[in-house]
Amino acid sequence: MGRYFLRRLLQSLMTLGIVLFVLHYLMALSVQIRGNPALLFLGGDRTPDPAMVEQIEKMYGLDNACYERPGDPCVGPFFTRLGNYLQGDFGRTLNGNQDVSEVLVTAIPNTLRLFLFSTIVLVTLALLLGTWAARHRGGLRDHAVRYTTILIDSVPVFLILLFYVYVVAVPLTKWARGIWGSDSFMGNLFRPTFSPEYPWVTIIIPGIILGFVGLATLTRLVRASQLENYNADFVRTADAKGLKKTRITVVHVLRNSMIPIVTGVGYTFAFMLSGAVLTEGVMGIPGMGRIIFQAVQRQDTSLVITGLTVSAVVVVIVSLIVDMLYAVLDPRIRYE
């Protein structure tokens, strides 16, 4: 198990290194093609003082001559950036008033809360619906589950969010506050926007909506993997012994179907990163997706690169956890 973990860890670190270099190279190309972002710091169309431009370039690590040569990968600044990251220095925002690390410290908890609720909703619904459809395969309930989840998944997340914010949230909030009060849990649960005063309560509904992303895919994956095991010899043997259907489903079918399900959960979690940008934008959640989107608009390279780096680290960690769960669920995998 230790050698398997070490091998997967090294592969994950190599993958992360490649991703970070690609992000750095894209940023370098952006600077080389679009011009120096340091000029945006000064604002306006006036001709800036060269000494001031040089000082700002040094502040943001843009004083290397490679940024003036289109196509140059700027390898030196890349290793400098990695060294700064290892020392906890993530640079400063474009306006120079705040460390990037301070911005991320306030944004990451909100995104983690959002992903916590969305993951719980996604996994719970997919397991329940997929298992129910598999147990009634070919019947009306099976078809109802498949068509309903496909219908939900076919509607863009931002449409669901907009419908909730502008049609559902306001009357529900007014109704709930009239019964339980404006400071109660129910009085803030249906708020159309995020509230820093109630970060956990006002993020539940956005998390549930984000949890619908990929629901059809994961539900069908659960159903297909369980149907494969329903036809296995050990399931027919358990059924012949007279075991209850629930015990057969939970102990024998579900347990032996977890590897593809874990794979689907890991993939869907990474896919939800794109949905988080829309969810955080519409619901006003100051999370990673919203901050990265705003940083792209401002051409804040330090914040964009660091935010995407954090997202890449999360995806790599999730992939590593999925690999480890493979070995836990099926010990034969570590010997392959």
TrEMBL record:
Topology class, membrane: Multi-pass membrane protein
Keyword Cytoplasm: no
CDD domains per the UniProt record, alphabetical: TM_PBP2
Broad class of the protein's primary localization: membrane
Keyword check for Transmembrane helix: yes
Residues annotated as domain ABC transmembrane type-1: 108-326
Residues annotated as transmembrane: 12-33, 114-133, 145-167, 198-218, 261-283, 303-329
Protein family membership: Belongs to the binding-protein-dependent transport system permease family.
Protein name, entry field: ABC transporter permease
Organism encoding this protein: Salininema proteolyticum
